[in-house]
Every structure is written in structure tokens, then in C-alpha cells.
Amino acid sequence: MLSYGCMPLAFLRGMHYIESTDKHKGDGAMKVSEILKVKGNILFTVTPDTLMRDAVDVMAQKDIGSLVVMEGGRLIGMLSFREVMATLRANGGEIGGDTVRRHMDTQPLTISCQTEVDEVRRLMLNHHARYVPVLDQHNLVGVISFYDVAKAILEAQSFENQMLKSYIQDQPLMAVEQGE
Where are the alpha helices (DSSP H) in 7-144? Predict the structure, then answer.
């Protein structure tokens, strides 16, 4: 198993899966590495020469909204629901016999494991990106979706709310115990 940055990368017959083992200790701000740790360990990729219909079949079978396009072990693009819909529109509702190379986003927004989640949220909103590859140097280590970011923020806020409620509920008891 090869190790790249915040997670080891293992290869599986034309697709890659990534197992998260990052032990990042936060400095207060949530980082992308923390989302990848919780998210799971599967990442689906295709080559640029994959037929669009095969890529769409993988997306439908796996219930995923994007595929990372890899060539020679490097990220060269993304194929998401947006590109699939554009292909259908351009081909009169047919997916056609083209390859992924013709329809993929060749310049996807990318982030690193150490990018703060608030920055990811800002970038995704500003660039209308639903899926963002995570790179360590030039090595792919995962993909973060808008859903992943929203879920992480909601869970962090829920935890913080529970802690605040607990603190507020315990505060009067502490004051009474101290004779105040």
C-alpha cells in the first residue's frame, strides 16, 4: 500500500480506494483531513478513455455524483453530474459513444488535507463546485462533496450546542456548590 500525505492509497483494478488513517490533531479550526477521516474509504476513478456510458453506469450503480479522472497516476479532471447533463443536452438526450476525456472538467478546483473547512465552504460556493478533489502535493487523497462539508459543519455545531447546553445546565449547580 502506498502512502500519500494524510491517507494511504491502494489500487484496485482501474479504480482506487482510499483508507483514512490521518491522526491530525486540530488547532481549533476543522480541516479537510478530519472530514476524510469520517467520510469513509472509497473513491471511484476512471481513465479519460473510459466511455461516457460506462462512467455514467458506475455513477448510477454506486449512487455517486462524481468520478475522478486519472491518467498515469495523476488527477487530470473530474466528471460530475453537471458534465453528464451537459453531454445529454448536447447530444439530444443521448449519452453517445464519446469518452470521458471529451466531457470532463479539465481544471477542477482542488484543495489540500490541511485546508480549513470554512475555506472549503467559501471556495465551493464561489466556484459553484459540488465536488472537490483533495491533493497532497500532486497526489490524490480523496474527494470532498458539498454534502460532506455541510454534514461536518452540522455535526460540529450539534456537538458545540450540546456542550454549551451542558455547561449552562451545570453552571448554577457549580455556583451553589461554591457557596455563591
Answer: 32-39, 52-62, 81-90, 100-103, 117-127
Pairing mode of beta strands 42-43, 15-18: antiparallel
Whether residue 77 contacts residue 140, with contact meaning beta carbons closer than 8 Å, is answered with no
pLDDT digits (tens, 9 = 90+) for 141-160: 999 999 999 988 888 777 77
5-38 residue pLDDT tens: 454 343 333 333 333 333 334 456 889 988 988 8
Other CB atoms closer than 10 Å to residue 139's CB: what's the count?
A: 16
- Rounded distance, CA 105 to CA 129, Å? 11
Neighbouring CB atoms inside 10 A of 51's CB total: 15
Residue 118's nearest CA partner among 82, 79, 157, 86 is 157
Location of C-alpha cell 480541516: 31
| 101 residue type, one letter | R
The domain ranges of the chain are 2-146
**Which of 10, 9, 7 lies closest to 24, judged by CA?**
7
Phi first, then psi: what are they for 24, rounded to 5°? -55, 130
CA distance 19 to 36: 9
Q: What is d(CA 62, CA 40) in angstroms, rounded to the nearest whole number? A: 14
Radius of gyration (C-alpha) of the chain in whole angstroms: 20
Superfamily in which the 2-146 domain is placed by CATH? CBS-domain (3.10.580.10)
